[in-house]
Amino acid sequence: MGEEANCNVVLMEAAKSPKENGHSGVAAAVTDAPASAAPTAAKAVAVVDPRLQGISDAIRVVPHFPKQGIMFNDITPLLLRPGVFKDAVDIFVERYRGMGIDAVAGIEARGFIFGPAIALAIGAKFIPLRKPKKLPGEVISETYVLEYGTDCLQMHVGAIEAGERVLIVDDLVATGGTLSAAIRLLERAGADVVECACLIGLPKFKECACLHSLLFASERWKDIDKSAVHY
Length: 231
Ligand SMILES: O=P(O)(O)OC[C@H]1O[C@H](OP(=O)(O)OP(=O)(O)O)[C@H](O)[C@@H]1O
Ligand SMILES: Nc1ncnc2[nH]cnc12
Description:
It is built from 9 helices and 9 strands. The strands form 3 sheets. Strands 1-9-8-4-5 form a 5-stranded mixed β-sheet, sandwiched between helices. A two-stranded antiparallel ribbon has the order 2-3. The chain has one domain (2-229): Rossmann fold. It has helices at residues 2-16, 41-47, 51-57, 76-79, 82-96, 111-122, 177-188, 203-209, 218-229; strands spanning 26-30, 60-63, 71-74, 103-107, 125-129, 139-146, 149-156, 165-173, 192-201. By secondary structure, the chain is α/β, with parallel strands linked by helices. The protein binds 1-O-pyrophosphono-5-O-phosphono-alpha-D-ribofuranose and adenine (ADE). The site of adenine has 8 residues, from strand 3. 1-O-pyrophosphono-5-O-phosphono-alpha-D-ribofuranose binds at residues 107-110, 146-147, 151, 170-178.
């Protein structure tokens, strides 16, 4: 309960005071925790993790990249600051250590930055979910809609065994289309998707998906996916 409440706190705090520079908050961990796990707003303010401010400050927002109208959240400044980078990884490791996670699935490309570090720290295997035509073996594929285009994720057949507990990691959730595709892909392979963890949650995603409540079961993801692409 302690760990889950802590993570709720992070999201609730972020949703409460979105930053004007375009990213609303960091260390968004999306879960299928029951609504009753969410703390009150007052409690959230009291226990927010002090590392989050440094993480938030290290993310640069670039207007109109890669196209007009997109406020691009650039994590590369954070990567240049080892202490802040470590804080970001540690927050996830603290949450997922001891949760019986068998595999961390990282989404190309930016999920490959955080995913392996988390996997090593919690003693899980790492599974790359790759863009098309990158994996040499037999793959299963899932297509999805992005904030700026469409894409596809692929995973090697055999990377995951039925019933294995998986954490999906990416840097950012915008529409939720990418995470939804990752969940579908892993579930088709028989995985038990425990949670999805992202460093950044864009404000519009929070608003349209009620992410502050952290009701993030994979069934719900299918609904989010549909509504988000029309947002
Ligand atoms: O919630 P969504 O609307 O699906 O968007 C989020 C995804 O978009 C970005 O990746 P992108 O597809 O730009 O690929 P990249 O990491 O290779 O730049 C980001 O790293 C997420 O994977
Ligand atoms: N606004 C954004 N910034 C960075 N990566 C993204 N992927 C989708 N939307 C994005």
